Amino acid sequence: MRIGVLALQGAFIEHQNMLNKLGVDAFTIRNLKELSQEMDGIILPGGESTTMYKLLKDLKMESLLKNMISYGLPVMGTCAGLLLLAENIHNFESAFLKTMSITAKKNAYGKQLGSFKTLGTFNNQENIPFVFIRAPYIEKTGKDVEVLAVVDDKIVAARQNNQLATAFHPELTEDLTIHKYFLSMIKSNI
Amino acid sequence: MNERYQLNKELAQMLKGGVIMDVTNAEQAKIAQDAGACAVMALERIPADIRAAGGVSRMSDPKLIKEIQKAVTIPVMAKVRIGHFVEAQILEALEIDYIDESEVLSPADNTYHIDKTKFSVPFVCGAKNLGEALRRISEGASMIRTKGEPGTGDVVQAVTHMRLIQSEMRNVQSLREDELFNKAKELQVPYDLLKYVHENGKLPVVNFAAGGVATPADAALMMQLGAEGVFVGSGIFKSGNPAKRANAIVKAVTNYNDPKILAEISEDLGEAMVGINEEEIDLLMAERGK
Question: Is B264 an interface residue toward A (CB < 8 Å)?
Fold first, then answer.
């Protein structure tokens, strides 16, 4: 199994390390050529969504990535990655890739002083560490979207077929639950 | 380790591979965000103009900072004078995302830096060697940048500082464990931070390059030398075509190892900032705060 990690900006090394811990071959994607390689899944990491999307467009990677996801490539987006996937972002001028039927709220917990860590339940597994850094949350989900985690009545993780989105950063913890879940999505896809 | 400090270090992790741009008003902040900046530094005057104006340079007007916070969704940073903990309290009250305790402004204290452990908002500090970097971290900085020589458009000092920090870290890695105690004494740094460097070969926080970066090639050079991201101050809004140059530097930081892409984006950027050579300047900002 080979998984690509979008490495335009942000915390991509952290995702690579998590995948390596699970014995999975992970490679970074910085341009169109690297995006064109064969892969079984792709991770859109945390960072700044506006920066990543600008680079996706400028480096002519946007339409290929969108197609890959539309054709069923398993994708996991964390924080900024969730925003990249969202069909709507209610408090921002536009949305980005718009592949996932969710409406997100950007910087939903405010500025850095609003960042926090908590324990939550993901897909019925309890006490999973959730780290929120200037994080978004999901305000609304469309059809076929399964809610996987809720914190204080806000949706913070969801899945729509081949797309998994979390508002928090599993890659900043030692807990491999979310990455394992993503691998199981890939395995059932292959 | 306290949870707030951990979250603050983690915000810096999210900035990695990105460009943080100096901006002096909301309009520039928007240009920076649209060009792909991962954060902006709000200040009244960019370093080149601070140099030209002389006099005492202080924290920016809160009104300006608030306008910039309103204009963008990316993190907003702002500078305080070295040791001026009340300026820092004011920025914390504005809910700034990062405070830069910066040698670019006139120092408020010739001996003491701010005790950054007393704050909930994160701090980034400049360093020109490993000792300075680890001292700032022990005071509570959750991100480090090279000092370079701000406002010059001359990358030579940033290169010197980054190379020195990296080579000092390689040296620390090569020491025997029983030699670390003496090294901590020599560098005037806490033993546990030095031990972290010994074991990991890197700082316990994210390390950016700053001070004199003016071109995409400069930015890529700093990344190849081990920077995890880049601050660009005067280099953007002192150039002929700020939006285009900003965008090119963002791309250079992502594809810093790809000379073909670097060649493409370096093309036709218009006038770079004129710049001054370090030998031509009277004031070495990097010598402030050790």
Answer: no
A188 CA: distance to closest CA in chain B (Å) = 31
Please tell me the distance from the alpha carbon of residue A185 to that of residue B254, in angstroms, as a whole number.
29
- Residue from A28, A51, A52 whose CB has the most chain B CBs within 10 Å, to mutate: A51
pLDDT of residue A177: 98
Contacts of A164 (CB under 8 A, 6+ apart): A74, A75, A76, A77, A148, A157, A158, A178, A181, A182, A185
Identify the residue whose tokens are 């980034």.
B124
Largest Cα–Cα distance of chain A, in whole Å? 42
Cα radius of gyration (chain B) = 18
- The total of other beta-carbon atoms located within 10 Å of residue A13's CB is 18
What is the ipTM for the molecules in this complex?
Answer: 0.95
The beta-carbon neighbor of A134 closest among B75, B251, B261 is B75
Of all residues in chain B, the one with the smallest CA distance to A112 is B97
Contact A32, A61 (CB under 8 A): yes
Q: Which of A18, A50, A92, A172 to mutate to test the interface with B (most CBs of B within 10 A)?
A: A50
Tens-digit pLDDT profile for residues A87-122 = 999 999 899 999 999 999 999 999 999 999 999 999
The answer to whether residues B276 and B154 touch, using CB atoms and an 8 Å cutoff, is yes
pLDDT for the residue numbered B209: 98
Summary mean pLDDT of chain B: 94
CATH of domain A2-189: 3.40.50.880
- DSSP H stretches of helix in B16-155: 26-35, 47-53, 62-71, 85-93, 130-138
Candidates A17, A182, A80, A20; CA nearest to B11 is A80
CB interface of B with A, residues 131-190, below 8 Å: none
Q: How far is B181 from chain A (nearest CA, A)?
A: 30
Q: What is the DSSP letter of B114?
A: P
Given CB atoms, is B99 within the 8 Å cutoff of chain A?
Answer: no
CB contacts of B94 in chain A (<8 Å) are: none
CA-based torsion, A151, A97, A68, A134: positive or negative:
negative
Copy the structure tokens of residue B273. 């900032």
